[in-house]
Specification:
Number of strands of chain A: 0
Distance between the termini of chain A: 63 Å
Largest sheet of chain A: none
Distance between the termini of chain B: 37 Å
Helix content of chain B: 25-40%
Number of domains of chain B: 1
Organism (chain B): Bremerella cremea
CATH superfamily of chain B: PAS domain
Strand content of chain B: 15-25%
Shape of chain A: rod-shaped
Radius of gyration of chain B: 16 Å
CATH architecture of one domain in chain A: Orthogonal Bundle
Oligomer: heterodimer
Number of helices of chain A: 4
Number of strands of chain B: 5
GO molecular function (chain A): transmembrane signaling receptor activity
Strand order of the largest sheet of chain B: 2-1-5-4-3
Structural class of chain A: mainly alpha
Largest sheet of chain B: 5 strands, antiparallel
Family (chain A): Belongs to the methyl-accepting chemotaxis (MCP) protein family.
Largest interface: A-B, 29 and 30 residues
CATH topology of chain B: Beta-Lactamase
CATH topology of one domain in chain A: Helix Hairpins
Keywords (chain A): Transducer
CATH class of chain B: Alpha Beta
CATH class of one domain in chain A: Mainly Alpha
Helix content of chain A: over 70%
Shape of chain B: globular
Protein name (chain B): PAS domain-containing protein
Order of helices and strands of chain B: EEHHHEEEHHH
Chain lengths: 414, 178
């Protein structure tokens, strides 16, 4: 393959036709050889193998130019591919300093190289932004972690505190319920006592009413007694006058009896003088004397009787007067009693009013106690729910903390 | 080998901004392809280059530690950018911005390496020259070249640490022509 095709010198007409043919045949053979070589190199290149080149090219002219042209084409293509591959390789690793070196690049290669470089610059900016975003993301993750951890810790602490507080609350509620129960029993007893007081007061009021009536009745009787004693006094005074007048009558009768006796004696003396004739008369005179005697005796007895009547009436008058005075005293006393009873009635009424008020108050207290009991029950129930909630909160807090850890791990891993 | 007899001329060659020098080697660094620009700039024929080790164009000013870094990277399957001064057949030199990458077979095994080299910006070259000089000095100051290379490697590491960049970033930061 060392032959070099050479133009047949002009004026070689002396050469034989056979020699000319031989020369052309040799030249054709050489052409065939290089065309075959070029075809193989081009085929390999067409199949992506840019390594093959046409070596030891020993032909000049068009054929030589073709061979070097093929080599040049492959050289530029190869160089471009390697450059592009390298740049993209670096870019893929996040290194953006690498650019396609434009020197030596021509035409479409240069244009493509420029586009690659522009893209790399864009990617560099994007990567910087991405890096900043990444950094911000991690910062946010750190902040988020700090904040959430703090919250989780606070929540856990709060849950714990809630738990403790609710236990205390439950105890307090229990105590409250127990105290309310005691208070309720006390209130019931108070209520019973108040009712008794009310009943007693009512009975007392009724008794006072009766007493009042009786006192009024007594008063009336006393008034009547006063009037009657006054009337009795008048009667006794009348009796005194009558007995006095009777005494006068008795004195008159006594005078008459005395005169009668004198007269009878005179008659007896006259009858004695008249003897026999006078005997009958003497009997009558004796009889008259006897009657006079009897009258004197009867009058004396009447006088005695009148005297004792007068004594008795005086005593009666005195007694009636004393009785009237006592009656007046009784009247005064009963008036005092009436006033006292009146006061007592007022006091009792007041006691009743107070008792009623106490009853109302007690009822209200009972309502309040019932409400307190209910509230205590509610508190106990709420507290139980609270304890459950606190436990759940603690659980949730733990879960949250774990989830946040997982989330942050995945954020940071991205 | 021709290289041994090369005398440095101090003359710098250059090539077009739209041109790329392309070479391919097998996994051991033996040249399997050189494009026309390579042939033209380096001054070798295709026959001289194919089958030759790639260090045929190694310039004595290049620190060993830079090639160690290069080989460590590409044999691990990574690309490397490196500013390299290369030696021409006649003793001239030329600066390139080399992009070296492994070639893989379908199974992902390294089948060879590919280097495409461009004309670097002069400003980048001016920054690189004193760095390489200092590394080279460290290497030359140690009679054991491996130990010297190790020292220079440490120095390069400290330098990168001081600017807070990986080697890739540092090399690329000098590239203006993007």
């Amino acid at each position: 393959m060392t032959l070099t095709t050479k133009q047949t010198p002009s004026g070689a007409g002396s050469k034989s036709l056979a020699a000319r043919v031989q020369e052309l045949e040799a030249r054709l053979k050489n052409y065939d050889h290089w065309i075959a070589q070029a075809t193989e190199v081009c085929n390999r290149a067409a199949h992506g193998d840019l390594e093959a080149r046409l070596l030891h090219v020993d032909v000049d002219g068009d054929l030589g130019d073709l061979m070097f042209g093929i080599n040049g084409l492959l050289d530029y293509t190869d160089a471009f591919v390697r450059e592009a591959k390298a740049v993209l390789g670096f870019t893929a690793q996040g290194k953006f300093f690498r650019r396609v070196i434009l020197r030596g690049m021509v035409g479409t290669f240069k244009h493509a190289a420029q586009i690659i470089n522009e893209s790399t610059t864009e990617m560099k900016h994007s990567a910087a932004e991405l890096s900043q975003a990444e950094s911000r993301r991690l910062d946010i993750a750190d902040q988020f972690e700090a904040t959430v951890k703090e919250i989780a810790t606070s929540v856990a602490a709060a849950a714990n505190e809630i738990h403790n507080t609710s236990e205390q609350l439950a105890l307090v509620a229990q105590q409250t319920a127990s105290q309310a129960d005691n208070a309720s029993r006390s209130a019931d007893r108070t209520s019973a006592i108040v009712i008794q007081v009310d009943e007693s007061s009512q009975q007392l009021t009724e008794s006072i009413g009766q007493v009042k009536e009786q006192v009024a009745e007594a008063n009336e009787i006393v008034q009547r007694a006063v009037i009657e004693s006054s009337e009795a006094n008048t009667v006794v005074a009348g009796l005194k006058d009558s007995s006095h007048r009777i005494g006068t009558v008795v004195d008159t009768i006594t005078e008459i009896a005395k005169l009668t006796k004198v007269l009878s004696l005179n008659a007896a003396i006259e009858a004695a003088r008249a003897g026999e004739a006078g005997l009958g008369f003497a009997a009558v005179a004796s009889e008259v004397r006897k009657l006079a005697e009897q009258t004197r005796e009867a009058t004396n007895a009447a006088r005695e009787e009148i005297g004792s009547v007068q004594d008795s009436s005086a005593k009666a008058a005195k007694a009636i007067t004393a009785c009237g005075e006592m009656t007046l005293e009784i009247s005064e006393t009963s008036k005092s009693i009436f006033r006292l009873i009146q006061q007592q009635a007022e006091a009792t009424s007041e006691i009743r009013a107070n008792a009623n008020e106490a009853a109302t108050e007690t009822a209200q207290v009972t309502v309040a106690i019932n409400q307190a009991t209910e509230a205590a029950d509610n508190t106990r129930e709420s507290t139980e729910r609270l304890v459950t909630a606190a436990a759940e909160l603690q659980e949730v807090s733990t879960t949250l903390s774990r989830s946040v850890d997982e989330l942050l791990a995945s954020i940071r891993k991205v | 080998m021709i290289k041994k007899n090369v005398r440095l001329t101090g003359h710098e060659r250059t090539f077009g901004e739209d041109e790329i020098i392309v070479s391919k080697t097998d996994p051991k660094g033996i040249i399997t392809y050189a494009n026309q620009t390579f042939i033209h700039v380096a001054g070798y024929t295709e026959e001289e280059l194919l089958g030759a080790p790639h260090n045929i164009i190694r310039h004595p000013d290049m620190p060993h530690c830079v090639f160690k870094l290069l080989w460590d990277n590409i044999s691990a399957g990574n690309e490397v950018f490196a500013f390299v001064v290369n030696l021409c057949k006649n003793g001239d030199h030329y600066w390139v911005l080399a992009h070296v990458t492994p070639s893989f077979d379908a199974a992902g095994k390294i089948t060879g390496y590919h280097s495409s080299r461009r004309v670097p910006d002069r400003s980048a070259v001016e920054q690189i020259i004193p760095i390489y000089a200092s590394l080279k000095k460290i290497e030359d100051s140690n009679p054991d070249w491996r130990a010297g290379m190790h020292d220079a490697e440490g120095e390069l590491g400290r330098l990168l640490e001081s600017v807070g960049m990986s080697y890739d970033e540092f090399a690329f930061s000098l590239v203006q022509c993007v």
